[in-house]
Amino acid sequence: MKRIFSITVFTMCAALAGTRAVAEENESAAGLFVEPAVTYESSNSSVTMPAPLGDTTGTVNGFGLGARLGFHFEGIVFAGVDARYAMPTFKDSSGYNASATEMNYGPVVGIQTPLVGLRVWGSYILGGELNPDKSGSFDVKFSNASGYRIGAGFRVAVVSLNLEYQEVTYKTSTLEQIGPFSPGTNFDSVNLKDKSWIASVSFPIAL
């Protein structure tokens, strides 16, 4: 699966690089834009457990893909929807260590300076989930995500180098397998909080 994911990332980058000249010719003062991205996330996480259980800490690290779709105005303001998908590794001090899938989505608003290429933006995360694979006798999924993401980047033509900070809280935990509990048991009192730095290369293209 990770090999297929890597091939997909490479193919997308090659295809987008070939669209550079066309995108520059079509860019206008206002209109639609699309911005695919390749991302790498490095984060610290904490799981809040109900008493008498103790809280745990961990990390979520790995590559992903992103996409924005929306409107740009006069080459200065842009707004749209920002969606992310990643395949990181989830590690926790409880001993949980597994590959995972992660996704979130929400609106984004930003500004950019057309001449210098500096861009800043903010996103509100409306939903998402982090679903680690089974580790030992444990299999848990975190969902009902909310939070925010702020970032800055430097754009040259249709390539933007970016760095973002993200905080997400997953308010629902689903125990898909753990000891005597029935599969699908939900715990709203078990929350995962994730604080991430995300580096990315994106390709803002006016349509």
Brief rundown of the structure:
The protein is mostly beta strands and 207 residues long. It has 2 helices and 12 strands; from the N terminus they run ααββββββββββββ.
Helix/sheet category: mainly beta
- Write down the overall geometry: elongated
Measure the end-to-end span.
32 Å
- Helix share bin: 10-25%
Would you tell me which CATH topology applies?
A: Porin
Write down the overall mean pLDDT. Answer: 84
**Rg, Å, rounded:** 19 Å
Oligomer designation: single chain
DSSP, total strands: 12
- The CATH level-2 architecture is identified as Beta Barrel
Strand content: over 45%
Order of helices and strands: HHEEEEEEEEEEEE
Detail the poorly predicted runs. 7-27
Total helical elements: 2
Number of domains: 1
For the largest beta-sheet, the strand count, sense and barrel status come to:
12 strands, antiparallel
What's the level 1 CATH class?
Mainly Beta
Outline the structure in words.
The protein has 207 residues and is mostly beta strands. The chain has a single domain (2-206), classed as Beta Barrel (Porin), CATH 2.40.160. It is 11% helix and 65% strand. It is built from 2 helices and 12 strands; from the N terminus they run H-H-E-E-E-E-E-E-E-E-E-E-E-E. Strands 1, 2, 3, 4, 5, 6, 7, 8, 9, 10, 11 and 12 form a 12-stranded antiparallel β-sheet that branches. A hairpin with a 2-residue loop joins strand 8 (139-156) and strand 9 (159-177). The longest helix has 16 residues, at 2-17.
Q: Notable features of this structure?
A:
mainly beta; Porin; 2 helices; 11% helix; elongated
